Amino acid sequence: MVLDSHSKVSVNVVQTDETYLCATSESLLRGMLRLGRKGIPVGCVNGGCGVCKVRIVQGEIKALGPISRAHVTCEEEMQGYTLACRVAPTTAVCLEVAGRLQKPFSRGRADSATASPLSQQQ
Question: Does a structural domain hold residue 118?
């Protein structure tokens, strides 16, 4: 089956069980934002900050631009990690957020005391 640029596929965010339709011509992140949905953390929306790092659990994606090696190493990419703002789905996708949603929200000061200076700037 050939998908045109107007085709939409299902995207599921494991941690929140949020599902939304994303065009095969738009990034996973922009598809979510367009619908006013939540689930993937949003930063610069341009590949520079790494906030929207995810792991593709199931499905296929295509690159919309380069992915910064400062945020996704070659090894991580081979394990399915990518930036949601830099890839578009070509099939239905199930993804896990690799950043902030993995951590419990109630850990408070202990987290901030051990966080790296880079994470404190975000």
Answer: no
Question: Is 71 among the domain residues?
Answer: yes
pTM: 0.76
Residue 75: domain span: 8-101
Tell whether 120 is covered by a domain. no
Residue 5: pLDDT band (50, 70, 90) is low
Could you read off the pLDDT of 47-67 as tens digits, one per residue?
989 999 999 999 999 999 999
Task: Assess if residue 87 is contained within a domain.
Answer: yes
Task: Please report the DSSP string for the chain in residue order.
Answer: ----TT-EEEEEETTTTEEEEEETTS-HHHHHHHTT--SS--S-SSSSS-TTEEEEEES-EEESS---TTTS-HHHHHTTEEETTSEEESS-EEEEE-SGGGS-TT-THHHHHHS-HHHHH-
